[in-house]
Design goal:
By secondary structure, the protein is of the alpha+beta class. 40% of the residues lie in helices and 11% in strands. Among the domains are: 64 residues, Orthogonal Bundle (DNA polymerase, domain 1), CATH 1.10.150; 84 residues, Phosphorylase Kinase, domain 1 (2-Layer Sandwich), CATH 3.30.200.20; 178 residues, Transferase(Phosphotransferase), domain 1 (Orthogonal Bundle); 54 residues, SH3 Domains (SH3 type barrels), CATH 2.30.30.40; 91 residues, no CATH class. The protein is built from 27 helices and 19 strands. Helix 11 runs antiparallel to helix 13, helix 23 packs across helix 25 and helix 25 packs across helix 26. It is globular. The structure holds adenosine-5'-triphosphate. The site of adenosine-5'-triphosphate (ATP) has 24 residues, from strand 2, strand 4 and strand 6.
Length: 737
């Protein structure tokens, strides 16, 4: 069972001493829903629910700290009690009157003991640490040190202090809390430690093996944090999975306030200076076009963040430049539904992506919408094992992702195995009427994974190099992508932004007008179709290698607009390998010229020279006319064939022109049949299934290759697991014999 808002304080208190796994047992087993309920608890009660002696000691200390820090006394009466809980994180000199928190402490360098590196951002390195507070408490903290060369720059210092100023006024369960600053060199920002690191790293690492119900909980928590910012008239401007931090197994907090700005009472939006960098792929159209940011543009970003979460952090608008994204969005293209996203949540995401900012919901409305979009949880009545289906044991809890009365099979995630697949709807009984599942199943076991390490780590900024998804003069104005410096060496999005000129202008300048086709078709050295170049100075970003290696598994980037065939034709002439003569052999051929048509008639042969000449003239002009007609027809047919090739290439990601041409040839030039054949071949080459099975799977997924591939991957994982289970059972049976 998931955490509820009223006892979020309990979860956080337990998380502080790494005992959050006892949350359900303490809340439901010992009935503790308020801090003073601990007064009635004995050590034996803790022992009874499995808490060891040393853990009990830690817990009692945390309870004592909680009581003395004033958190419980400062509870503000509010409908939303979780928000009213003023969580001082055990900092004795910080938790004062609700809503008027004290300024963050000035922390001495000597009070900090720094440990392992957690990551690095634009300011510099972030390290884990312990803060030995003046009152003797030791707090786990995250310490952001400003790079020494940066702190000498006036702009950098100003930005650093701006982030500190913004952060120190924030106080919410789902917002990373600032504890204090160290003002000696190097400058440091000391914040609450989110033990799990960024959600981006976690989800990339876990890849499809994450409880989707927990993701729903996170969507609620992010909305709650953003609603708080909205109520304080702050615009975050950089909401993305990389900036959502995991404070405990079931608790996320929004971090990174480098781009945040406050709105005065008379303004409803903020127009950024055009030289500032912005994370294109997360931005609302009005931010891309006019640099306008508002609560509504934060809502758009929230939608993109949810999309990231439910795709396990794929890149939104992969491979498209800012201008291309804007072009697509203005033509009503939106990010596709992630296959694992519960249907109601996707409906909500689409509302966040309303083109007109006024049509988007507010965060206050979104918190209600998220609550209403909670996926249904059911238990199953009996074991269910069928190939290619979601395998279930009796009483398994399933998070339902897609359901309706008409469907005999629902899509769901088995909370025990975390596999996703179809299962018979008739097996499901709603959680409320199901017998209580055993405690081990009530909370899905999960661990907090360490962030993915590695040099070629994609950063969640839309590219391996964050600079590539943010405006940057080098990228957008030079007409060529150059690998940026390693992330560690990058100047901050606050500081370096001063040096990042014209990012926004770069998005806008030379933007094609609505309805205009943006650019020519480009092909790579293998003849594969590349997304269009919008303008000569627009640059394609390199793709995530994971996508490259799983080209047919991962979603293709949104379809580029229909290519300009004139360019295709010119390029084809320039680059013969793209359209080898033999490759068009499937096209209907012209009949060979009949000799009779080109030879003078017998009668003519016997006539006068004059007649002969006039006849010859007539036949020559006839010949010329015929030849012109043939050229015209040939040209038309060539264009038609190129059109078909383009159409199929757009529909099937990653195929070469030759493959498409051959498929068209085999299917009498029918593009739909060729498309299906190519998809079938791609799926077949990915799996061990028969072609017939692949065909069924594709039909089931309406020929969406990406969804079908995902389905197949999960299915083969499940099959492998089942096979090893069978093997184990066989071995133990043999041992018994
Ligand atoms: N409070 C925290 N607790 C745990 N880890 C943190 C915390 N703050 C930051 N980190 C880790 O350090 C990394 C860098 O954080 P930082 O906020 O400096 O940069 P960023 O947001 O990733 O990038 P940028 O500042 O360029 O937008 C994060 O990705 C995260 O993994």
């Amino acid at each position: 069972m998931l955490m509820d808002k009223d006892t979020q304080w309990l979860y956080q208190l337990l998380a502080e001493v790494q005992l959050e796994k006892f949350y359900t047992r303490i809340r439901d087993g010992l009935n503790i829903t308020r801090i003073d309920h601990f007064n009635y608890v004995k050590d034996a009660d803790f022992e009874y629910i499995g808490i060891s002696k040393p853990a009990q000691r830690r817990l009692w200390e945390a309870v004592k700290r909680y009581k003395t820090s004033g958190r419980s006394r400062n509870k503000v009466s509010s409908n939303r009690s979780a928000d009213a809980e003023h969580w001082a994180g055990g900092v004795p000199n910080m938790g004062v009157e609700a809503g008027t928190r004290a300024l963050p402490s000035l922390i001495q360098d000597s009070e900090l003991v720094l440990g392992e590196k957690l990551g690095s951002g634009s300011f510099g390195v972030v390290r884990k640490g312990d803060w030995y507070t003046p009152t003797g408490t030791v707090l786990p903290v995250a310490v952001k040190s400003l790079k020494s060369d940066m702190s000498r720059q006036a702009d950098t210092l100003k930005d650093f202090l701006q982030e500190v100023t913004v952060m120190q006024s924030l106080d919410h369960t789902n917002i990373i809390r600032l504890y204090g600053v160290v003002l000696t060199q190097p400058l440091k920002m000391v914040t609450e430690l989110a033990i799990g690191g960024s959600l981006y790293d976690i989800l990339r690492f876990r890849q499809y093996k994450y409880p989707l119900m927990r993701l729903w909980l996170f969507t609620a928590q992010i909305a709650a944090g953003m609603e708080y910012l909205e109520s304080r008239r702050y615009i975050h401007r950089d909401l993305a999975a990389r900036n959502v931090l995991l404070a405990a197994k079931e608790l996320v907090k929004i971090g990174d306030f480098g781009l945040m700005r406050g709105l005065s009472q008379d303004k409803d939006h903020y127009v950024m200076a055009s030289h500032r960098r912005i994370p294109f792929a997360w931005c609302a159209p009005e931010s891309l076009r006019t640099g306008s940011f508002s609560h509504a543009s934060d809502v758009w970003m929230y939608g993109v963040t949810l999309w990231e979460m439910f795709t396990f952090c794929e890149e939104p608008w992969c491979g498209l430049s800012g201008r291309e994204i804007l072009w697509h969005v203005e033509r009503d293209t939106r990010l596709e539904k992630p296959p694992d996203c519960p249907q109601e949540l996707f409906v909500m995401m689409k509302k966040c992506w309303a083109f007109n900012p006024a049509d988007r919901p507010s965060f206050a409305q979104l918190t209600t919408m998220v609550a209403e979009a909670k996926p249904m949880e059911v238990h199953v009545t009996r074991d269910f094992v069928e190939p290619r289906k979601l395998q279930l044991a009796a009483n398994d809890a399933v998070t339902v992702l897609q359901h309706s009365k008409e469907l005999v099979e629902w899509l769901g995630q088995n909370q025990r195995t975390l596999n996703v697949g179809l299962f018979p709807a008739m097996l499901a009984i709603p959680e409320s009427t199901a017998s209580n599942p055993p405690p081990s199943q009530a909370v899905t076991p999960a661990f907090i994974s360490p962030p993915v390490k590695g040099s070629l780590q994609h950063t969640g900024h839309g590219d391996f190099q964050p600079v590539n998804s943010w405006g940057s003069p080098a990228r957008l104005e030079d007409g060529g992508w150059r690998p940026g410096p390693a992330r560690e060496r990058e100047p901050t999005n606050l500081k370096k932004m001063a040096g990042m000129s014209r990012s926004l202008e770069s998005v806008l300048s030379g933007h094609p007008a609505r309805g205009q086709t943006p650019g020519a078709v480009r092909v790579d050295q293998h003849g594969r179709l590349l997304p269009p170049v919008m303008e000569s100075n627009s640059v394609m970003m390199p793709r995530d290698p994971r996508r490259m290696s799983e080209a047919s598994v991962n979603p293709p980037p949104p379809r580029p607009p229909l290519p300009n065939l004139k360019h295709l034709h010119i390029k084809a002439q320039k680059k013969p390998p793209m359209y080898p003569a033999s490759a068009t052999s499937w096209m209907p051929q012209f009949p060979a010229q009949k000799p009779a048509q080109t030879q003078p008639s017998q009668g003519a042969a016997t006539g006068s020279n004059l007649i002969k000449m006039s006849q010859m003239n007539r036949s020559t002009s006839q010949l010329n006319e015929d030849s012109r007609e043939r050229d015209r027809t040939r040209e038309q047919e060539k264009l038609q064939s190129q059109n078909l090739v383009t159409q199929v290439m757009e529909a099937v990601h990653g195929v070469t022109i030759e493959e498409v041409q051959s498929a068209l040839q085999r299917n009498d030039g029918n593009p739909l049949r060729a498309e299906k054949q190519l998809k079938l071949e791609q799926l077949y080459s990915l799996s061990l299934c028969s072609k017939e099975d692949c065909n069924k799977i594709l039909t089931l997924h309406q020929w969406n290759l990406q969804q079908a591939s995902r389905y197949l991957m999960r299915w083969s994982r499940e099959d492998r697991a089942a096979a090893s289970d069978r093997e184990r059972q066989q071995i133990s049976a043999e041992r018994r014999v």
